[in-house]
Amino acid sequence: MNLIGVPASHFDLEYCGGPGIAVTPVVNGKNANVKTEVWLKDAKAGQTLRYTLRMPCGCTVAKAEVPAAQTVCEAVIEDVHLWHGRKDPYLYTAIVELIEDGKVLDTVKTRFGCRTFRIDPEEGFILNGESYPLRGVSRHQDRWGFGNALLPEHHKEDMEYIAEVGATTIRLAHYQHDQYFYDLCDEYGMVVWAEIPYISQHMPGGRANTVSQMKELVIQNYNHASIVVWGLSNEITMKGAEDPDLLENHRILNDLCHELDKTRLTTIAIVSMCKQDSEYVQIPDVVSWNHYFGWYGGDVSMNGPWFDQFHAQFPNIPVGVSEYGCEALNWHTSKPKQGDYTEEYQAYYHEELIKQLFTRKYLWATHVWNMFDFGADNRAEGGENGQNHKGLMTFDRKYKKDSFYAYKAWLSDDPFVHICGKRYVDRVEDVTRVTVYSNQPQVELFVNGKSLGVQESDVHFFYFDVPNAGTSRLVAVAGECRDESTIRKVETFNEAYRLKEKGAILNWFDITEIEGYYSLNDRLDEIMKSPQGRELFGQLMQGIMGQMKGGKAMGFDVTEDMMKMMGGFTIVRLTSLMGAANVKITKEQLLGLNAMLNKIPKV
After folding, report:
1. Where are the alpha helices (DSSP H) in 222-263?
2. pLDDT digits over 229-261, tens only?
3. What is the rounded average pLDDT of the residues 302-320?
4. Calpha distance 72→22 (Å, rounded)
5. Which position among 235, 323, 343, 444 bears the catalytic label?
6. Distances (CA, A) of 298 to 51, 280, 303, 321, 350
7. Is 37 a catalytic residue?
8. Which of 134, 205, 396, 483 could form an S-S bond across to 144 if both were Cys, CB 3.0 to 4.6 Å?
9. What is the pLDDT of residue 546?
10. High-pLDDT (> 90) share of the chain, %
11. Is the Cβ–Cβ distance between 519 and 594 less than 8 Å?
12. Rounded average pLDDT over 502-530
């Protein structure tokens, strides 16, 4: 708790919790026209306001003293130094003093940056007239042992990690973050999406709350050069996008943002199952989608083509990716599969998504879900309850997963090389695949001092087939950079690397597979290629749909798009997820289904 003492005449402390000052710079050629506005309480005749604009060195670039009734002052910064993201996050400071009889009664100040930006449906994000791809992460600010009660050094550490990975943008989900972190975003040159906690399900009685939170978000954060879009909502159409009250609420929020801030745009994070031509998608200035093809159904290959389809159908709507990712804990395999929660599958997933998303210039921003693992009370996945493990780093910030380095290889200019799979030491195969990430053009891998050759890659990912015998010391060399790890040949798979889900009806490795025939470990869309498979799955779905309320799966309508996503699931994973919809399937039923699948030849 803070106790603030002010004189009778003072800058307003109660205007939506804001700083009492708003600075609006407009770049005009080589100069910037800067409007500074303040809010006063109980000003008196004879009092004055002194407006000062300063450079980081403390040099004054503009100054004026006017009657206190003049709460708006305009000035010109000649030869303005632009705020240019990570390349040059230059910040000015505006200071306004309330003066009476030559004495300063009260002072407000804020930093601000001068920049232009636009979001083009073909060219993506443009900063100060230059193409500036927004490739980055989403952030939840909680961490293990502290919850949301972070100290400044925790926020600074988070920013250092995000900067290390090479991100140019951060989506601050799904609520206001600490003011200190917004300051860090300004200082580090991160381009920011800020949003309110209007999430998942529209509540007709919640309109006043959403309006209040949006008003506070904009007013309290107006001066941050880093912020370019205000987020109206996240996945709000889980129960459908046709609700007239939901649509009206979004129009109100959209108009409110434009009324309070004429310099920034609005956006929404849209859940996958929302129809592309929904009226709701047309409301904000730009849109982004939360897609998990390759994790929650579908296949990794579906991501890029899906956006191409949307872009072709709506060429005038700037589109981005607000969420994508998959979960990984300390589980490992040489044969990663969707849904296995291994670090290797997460690395594969992000390799594929990076190649698809980063090469599509029209995507105005892409945000990985998430930079860090975070708390989620109702989750029971991956063998560690109460967390979402989609982070590129662990909840305690102690470990950078391999996927962290996949992004660093694409986004960072700081030379490095990284051998993946350091926690995956024991391996059964005689020849094992070792992946190396680097932002250098060539990588050479040595095994016990013997070179396996030099590889080149234009996608920053290098794959070596390594002979596996005894204990092997691996050394990767890329320019002046080097990294080391160890692998060890074992005869039987180390079960400590394999997730055994508590309460699971069946784990995938317990399922009988017959070469050339289907099993529960095959994907639904593969099984559906067989007439016998389609018939068998149709019988299964009849029983499942009978247990669902209103033909819905986990709250979503079972639409054609939903079925396409489900096609990417293996049957065993699909049936395990059905538990979230209270669909009851016994172990005996699954084993019986697997026995029938074992009799159907693969197409």
Report:
1. 244-260
2. 999 999 999 889 999 999 999 999 999 999 999
3. 97
4. 9
5. 235
6. 57, 24, 9, 16, 15
7. no
8. 396
9. 56
10. 82
11. yes
12. 84
Helix 179-188 vs helix 152-165: angle between axes, to the nearest 10 degrees? 30
Which residues, other chains included, contact 529 with Cβ-Cβ below 8 Å and sequence gap of 6+? 603
Domains of the chain: 10-112 (2.60.40.10), 132-413 (3.20.20.80), 426-489 (2.60.40.10), 513-597 (no CATH)
pLDDT mean across residues, the chain = 93
Residues 6+ apart with CB under 8 A from 68: 9, 40, 43, 44, 47, 48, 49, 98
> Which amino acid, residue 8?
A
pLDDT more than 70, % of the chain? 94
Angstrom distance (rounded) from CA 280 to CA 241: 6
- 12 vs 525, which has greater pLDDT? 12
Supply φ then ψ for residue 343, to 5 degrees.
-65, -30
Alpha helices in 358-475 (DSSP H): 402-411
Helix locations, 439-586, DSSP H = 524-527, 531-547, 560-566, 571-577
Q: What's the pLDDT score for residue 36? A: 98
CB atoms within 10 A of CB 478: 24
Specify the residue for token string 């190396």. 436
pLDDT at 560: 59
pLDDT digits (tens, 9 = 90+) for 177-189: 999 999 999 999 9
Q: How many Cα atoms sit within 13 Å of 596 on the Cβ side?
A: 15
Residue 598 is which amino acid?
A: N
Q: Tokens 């580090």 belong to which residue?
A: 188
Q: Which residues contact 453 (CB under 8 A, 6 or more apart)?
A: 444, 445
Q: How far is CA 205 from the centre of its chain?
A: 29
pLDDT at residue 286 tops 90: yes
Nearest one of 327, 341, 342, 338 to 421, comparing CA atoms? 342
Query: pTM of the predicted model, to two decimals?
Result: 0.91
Residue 201 tokens, joined: 């399900």
Angle CA 331–337–342, to nearest 5: 15
